[in-house]
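G., the chain you wanted modeled:
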Amino acid sequence: MKTKQEITRNWLERYTKTPLEKIGRYVLLTNFNNYVDIFCDEMKIAHPGYDANMRLASAESITIINFGMGSPNAALISDLLSAIMPEACLFLGKCGGVETKIKVGDFLLPVAAVRGEGTSNDYFPPEVPALPHFMLQRVVSTTLKNHCSAYWAGVVYTTNRRVWEHDASFKDYLRKIRVSGVEMECATLFSCANYNYLPMGALLLVSDNPMVPEGVKTTDSDKIVTANYSQHHVKLGIEALRMVADGAAKRDFLKI
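Predicted structure as tokens:
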């Protein structure tokens, strides 16, 4: 295999154990196996097994893929999806709220991401901003409005650090640059999707408030978030991509 297209087509099928023609034109991305299961329940299809590195399910023209956690995996799935060039990709992830007004269970619609992860430097020089596809984010915003779901819009900080909640200097830095949330994938997804000419958006669920000790995510708190908010998160993602798929976005003069 000599070309990027040859490699990515082979690897996308290998990682997902799914023929490329079975992958939908509209892709939900996630880090969580339970989101794949929720998608299947919503679409009334069987749950996939666990034999693939990237667990995948498809219904209608929508596919959901659990690509794993962190910016290297975010770059990988962005490169692999370039093999099929989906019409829209939407990341359903979680983030920690940085601003005190942002609470657990809130939705955050990122308008940009600070490239603190390093992976995106392999795709663009540091001065290039990491931005989601504006038109797709507008569709997500409309979906939130249609479902009477309030949300915050702001900048998120993407980091490769998994354990930083004890680091006072890092938390001071997050406050200084005035980001709304902190997470591990958005800057990479936005940058690598831009590099590969993929429309990429994101809708984040605030899962914790890691700026204070009592707000750091625990096993028990994560179970509460999953039980109370995950299903609605997935439903919003499905509805947003349905809006794109049925042409509603294009009728609103949005080019996606």
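Strands lie at 26-30, 55-59, 62-66, 88-97, 107-116, 151-159, 181-183, 200-208.

Shout if anything looks off.
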